[in-house]
Amino acid sequence: MSIPPGSIIVSDWYHCADSREFFSKILHKKKRRKFGLLEAPMMPPHMNVDIVRYKVLISGKSGVGKSALAARLAGLELPKMHYETTGIETTVVFWPVRLKDSGRVLFFRFELWDCGESAMRRFDHMLPSCKEQVDGILFLFSFTDRGSFDDLSNQISRITESSDRVVKLVVGTKFDLFMHTDVTESDIAHFQEVWGLPVFRVGGDVSAGLGEVAPLLNALAENLWHQDCMAASTVSISPQAALRETGSEITV
Amino acid sequence: MLQAETLQLLCLTASSGVPLFSRGSTKQLPFSVVGSLNGVHMFGAGHGAQLSSCETDRGSRVVWEVFQESLMLIAVSGGGGSGISELQLRRLLENVWNCMVLVLGQDELANIRNVERLKRELRSCYRLFDLLLERVNDEQGFMGDLTRCADCLLPSTSALLQDALDSFAQAAESEFGCLLVRGRVAQATEKWWSRLTSQEVVVLSILMHSLSNASSCDYPVFLPQGSPTVAIRLLGFQLLPGVHVCVLCGPKPSLYKAENELVSRFWSTLVENLRSCLEQADRSTVPPSVSLRWDVQALLLINRESRRAVTVCPRVRGGAPAEATPLLSSRRRLELLRLFYTFAVTRYFTSQETSVSSASEDFPQGFTHVPVQCYLVTEECKCYGLQSPQHQLFLLMDLSVPTFALRTVATQTLSAITSATAF
C-alpha cells in the first residue's frame, strides 16, 4: 500500500546545502516558525514554489499523545502536562520537499486534525467533521500502553472504509520510555506484515531539530503526493487533483 | 495550612463529600484536612448556618461554595501576606464552576449518576482550571476573572476590523463573533456584548486563550447562563500568531468549510491591520493617541454598560523628570491594582454582586446615596477610584502626586481615554 521511502522525494534533503533557503523559511531564530492561517512561507515569486495543502487526521486512544505529536511535528513547545483535548484542534505544518524526478520543490502544508476521544464519543458531529475531505490518517499507539496497540486494527477499520482514498501511516509514541515498553519489535513486525502499513517511532526531546520529525513528514508528503499522482493517472481529469493545483498558493 | 503564595482548589460532591479533584499548589492538602473542611461546612449546614468563608490568624483564607446543590468547591489560599482577597477567591470559584459547565454542560454536573465517571470527565476541564489559578496572580494584566468584565484591547483601526468581523460572523451563520489579540478582546459583534453574560464572555476568552496554539478549533461549549444544557459550537481560527477570531454557531458550517472558504475571504486583506494591532498590543492596551500622565502607575477602566475593561500598566514612563522614583515592578502594580479594585468595590462602589462578608465598614449603612469617588494613600502609591453611571476608573499614581490633585488627575485620565477611543 505504502511506497518505500525515498522513491519519489529526496529523503534526507534537509541535510543538503540546496535546501537551506527553503528550510530557512520555516525557521525563526533556530526554532520552527509559527504560522497563522493567513500566513505561508514566502519565497521569491520567480522561484515559483507551489504550496500543496493536505488534511491529515491524527487518530488514537485518549492519552496516547495526539496533541503532543501535532505540537512535535509543528515544532511547538510540547505541553508540560497531559490535558484532554475536548474538541477538534488543528495545527498547520509547512514542510519543503524536493521531488526526485523533476527536481521541483514543493511546500507541503499539512493541516493536522486532532480530536479528543471523549469529545468524539459525546458529540456525533466530530468524527464526520474530522473525516470530511481528509487526505491522510496517522494512527497512533503508545509504546507504554499495550491496549492502544491492540486497539489499532479496531481503529483502522472503524475510521476508514476500504474504498476510502486516504494515506494511512502508523506512529508509535513515547518510544523514549523503552524501559516501560509494552510493545515489542516482533509485535510491530507482525503488525506491519498483516496490515502493510509503515510504523514510525517518536518520543523524547524535541531538541534533535528537523531530523527528528523529517522521516515522518517526508513519508507523509511522499505518500500523499503519490496518492494524488495515482488518482490523476487513473482518471483522465481528476477533479480533486485539478482542484488542488488551482488551490495551491504561492504567498498570502 | 498552606505555604504563602499558594492557592488550592478542591471539589467534592456536596451530598456525600467524595473528593472529585484538587488543583493548584504542588503539595496537596492531606485528605484529613480536606475532610475537615468539608465536615465543618456540613456541620454548619446541619444547624441552619451557611459557612461561606474564614480567615486564619496566619492569613490563610478558605472560601466555600455549593453549586446546584450538587458540587462543593473550596478555595484555600496560603497566608504570609499574599494579596488574595475573599472576593478574588469567590470569583475564582464562580469561574471554575462556569468553566465546568462550559465544557461538560449543567446536566452532567447537577445530576451526578456515577461519581467515578464524573471524576474522569472533570479531567477535561483541568487546562482551564490551571489557567484560572494562574490568572489570580497574573502578570500580564488580565483582570476579567476578578472584574467579571472582558479584558479588552482598544485598537486604532477599529471600524475596519468591526466590519470584517461582522461579515465574517454572518457568513458563518452566527451573530456572535469576537476578535482577540494576545488574549484580549479587540473587537466583538454587538450581540457578543448584549446577549452573552459577562461571566460567559470571561470564560469564553479564557477558553480561547487556552487554545492559542491551535491553528483552528471546533469546540462544543455550553453557555453557563444562555445555554447550560444544549451544546453549541465555538469555532476559532488563528489568523496570525497572537490574533484569533472566534464565532459561536450551530451545526453549520463545518470547520473545514469555514476555514477554507471564509477565513481568507474576509481576513486576508486585513493582514497589515492585524499586524499593527499586534504591535500595539505589545506596547499598550490603549492606542498611541491616548496620552497618559507620566505619574500614572497603572489603571483599570471599566465600561459598566458593556462590561468591558482595559488595564494599562506602562512598562516605561515617558516624560518623567529625572528625580522621579522608578516604577514599581509590573507584577506589584497589578497586585496593588487588584487590591485597590477589591477595596473599592467591596466598601464603597458596592453592588449586589460584590457584597462579600468582609465588607465590614459601617459607614455606608444607613446612607441611601452611593459614593462616586474614593481614594487611598499607601506607602507605595496613591490610589483613586471614581464611578459614573457609565464608567468605573481605578487609578494608581506616584506618591509625588499631591493628594489634593488626585481627583483632577483621575477625571483628566478618564476623559483622555474615553474621548480618544469612545470606550
TrEMBL record, chain A:
PANTHER family recorded for this chain? CILIOGENESIS AND PLANAR POLARITY EFFECTOR 2
One GO BP on record is:
protein transport
State the similarity comment. Belongs to the small GTPase superfamily. Rab family.
Record keyword Chaperone present? no
Query: Which InterPro entries does the record associate with it?
Result: P-loop_NTPase (IPR027417), RSG1 (IPR039677), Small_GTPase (IPR001806)
Q: Write out the annotated subcellular location.
A: Cytoplasm, Cytoskeleton, Cilium basal body
Question: Which controlled-vocabulary keywords does the entry list?
Answer: Cell projection, Cilium, Cilium biogenesis/degradation, Cytoplasm, Cytoskeleton, Exocytosis, GTP-binding, Nucleotide-binding, Protein transport, Transport
Q: Cite the GO molecular-function annotations of the record.
A: GTP binding; GTPase activity
Q: Highest lineage ranks of the organism?
A: Eukaryota, Metazoa, Chordata, Craniata, Vertebrata
Q: Sorted alphabetically, which Gene3D superfamilies does this protein's record hold?
A: P-loop containing nucleotide triphosphate hydrolases
Protein name, UniProt field: Ciliogenesis and planar polarity effector 2
Automatic annotation (TrEMBL), chain B:
What's in the keyword line of the UniProt record? Answer: Cytoplasm, Cytoskeleton
Recorded protein name is Fuzzy planar cell polarity protein
Which residue range or ranges hold the FUZ/MON1/HPS1 first Longin domain?
9-130
The answer to whether the entry has keyword Membrane is: no
For this chain's UniProt record, which GO biological process terms are given? Answer: non-motile cilium assembly; vesicle-mediated transport
- According to its UniProt entry, this protein's organism is Phoxinus phoxinus (Eurasian minnow)
Q: Which domain of life is it from?
A: Eukaryota
FUZ/MON1/HPS1 second Longin domain span: 174-267
